[in-house]
Write a structure and sequence with these properties.
Elements (H helix, E strand, L loop, with lengths): L1 H17 L3 H11 L5 H7 L9 H37 L18 H15 L3 E2 L5 E3 H4 L25 E3 L5 H10 L4 E10 L11 E11 L4 H16 L5 E8 L2 E10 L16 E10 L1 H6 L8 E7 L1 H9 L12 H4 L4
Parallel strand pairs: 1-4
Antiparallel strand pairs: 2-3, 4-5, 5-9, 6-7, 7-8, 8-9
Helix pairs in contact: 1-2, 1-4, 5-10
The structure holds phenylalanine (PHE).
Length: 342
């Protein structure tokens, strides 16, 4: 009997060493310690022993039972630990891998330029006003002194909406009308940045969509000298303190007199080069004194009030500033271009 017990203990211990999973362990428990397990069966056999052998055999049997139970507990703990380690290893992060860089956003070059322009004009007391991209014929044309069939409308061919009389604005000049409606009869000093649209053949120099910044200053005794001073100051802050401007007579239906402002070439200093097409000058904006009909349309009496207006394209300004030769790159959404201005 004693030999049987010792042999059972050794067999159980070997089998326990081989149990590596929780299932194998449970199987072992049933096989040795369970109700019909080997040890239980052996213990039952104790009753058949002669009385003088029973105490010693009982003691040994209990020892074997305790030692198997302890061995089982220890093994169960080891199996649990191993499972945990394995699970951790499976879900492990390799912290030595370099992180994936987050791409940080940045402003589009047009927006950056718009903000630069806004900052310069706000120093001179201009407020930023916004108006919609959809306009009606009256505001885009008629109130800007272009009645239906006016030939100047050809310069601003555009996209029309399905709703008759509505169109995508061709310039920010209708913003002058909105500003007058809003501030009448106060004096006005605003800039109006925003998107404009034209039915254009798209080329290196022309896009069908682009930004403009309109400026309007209106009040008592405003003269062309104010217009010139304001724009010279702008050009110098934007392009450098030594810049000069030239005002070349031009025509816009909504200003009288009208002018194009040219800046001395930033590449050659007006000696002549490919950028300025050997003229020495770069056209940067259109401007003029607000036409009396436009003032009247906005409710301002031209005998009392006068004002100046200008309109510039920030893409054009950015092209000059950064030496960009093709306006189409602005909206082509090619990051290789845009990231240069991040
Ligand atoms: N709206 C004109 C254009 O788009 C520019 C302009 C604005 C000219 C204001 C004079 C005064 O070409």
């Amino acid at each position: 009997m004693l030999e049987q017990l010792q042999e059972l203990r050794a067999r159980a211990a070997r089998a326990l060493d081989e149990a590596v999973t929780a299932e194998q362990l449970e199987q072992w428990r049933q096989e040795y310690l369970g109700r019909r397990g080997a040890l239980t069966v052996a213990l039952r056999g104790l009753g058949q022993l002669p009385a003088d052998q029973r105490p010693a055999a009982g003691r040994i049997a209990n020892e074997v039972k305790t030692s198997l139970e302890q061995a089982y507990e220890a093994r169960a703990e080891a199996v649990r630990q191993a499972a945990l380690v394995e699970e951790l290893a499976r879900g492990a992060l390799d912290v030595r891998l370099p992180g994936r860089p987050q791409s940080v956003g940045y402003l589009h070059l047009s927006t950056q330029t718009l903000r630069e322009i806004q900052a310069i004009f706000s120093q001179m007391g201009f407020q930023v006003l916004r108006s919609g991209e959809v306009e009606d014929d009256a505001t885009n044309f008629q109130l800007l002194n272009m009645p239906p069939d006016h030939p100047a409308r050809d310069m601003w061919s555009t996209f029309y909406l399905n709703v008759p009389g509505l169109l995508l604005r061709t310039h920010t000049s209708p913003g002058q009308v909105h500003a007058m409606r809003r501030y009448h009869p106060e004096s006005i000093r605003v800039i109006l940045p925003g998107k404009c649209y034209r039915y254009e053949q798209v080329t290196q120099r022309h896009e069908f969509q682009f930004f403009q910044v309109e400026g309007l200053a209106l009040g008592h005794g405003i003269t062309m000298a104010d217009l010139k001073g304001t724009l010279v100051n702008f050009a110098r802050q934007m392009f450098g303190a030594e810049r000069r401007l030239r005002f070349r007579p031009s025509y816009f239906p909504f200003t009288e007199p009208s002018a194009e402002a040219d800046m001395d070439c930033i590449i050659c200093g007006s000696k002549g080069c490919p950028l300025c097409k050997y003229t020495g000058w770069l056209e940067i904006l259109g401007c003029g004194m607000v036409h009396p009909n436009v003032l009247r349309g906005g409710g301002y009496d031209p005998d009392e009030y006068s004002g100046f207006a200008f309109g510039m394209g920030p893409e054009r300004i950015a092209m000059l500033k950064h030496g960009i030769s093709d306006i189409r790159t602005f909206f082509a959404n090619d990051l290789r271009f845009l990231q240069q201005f991040a």
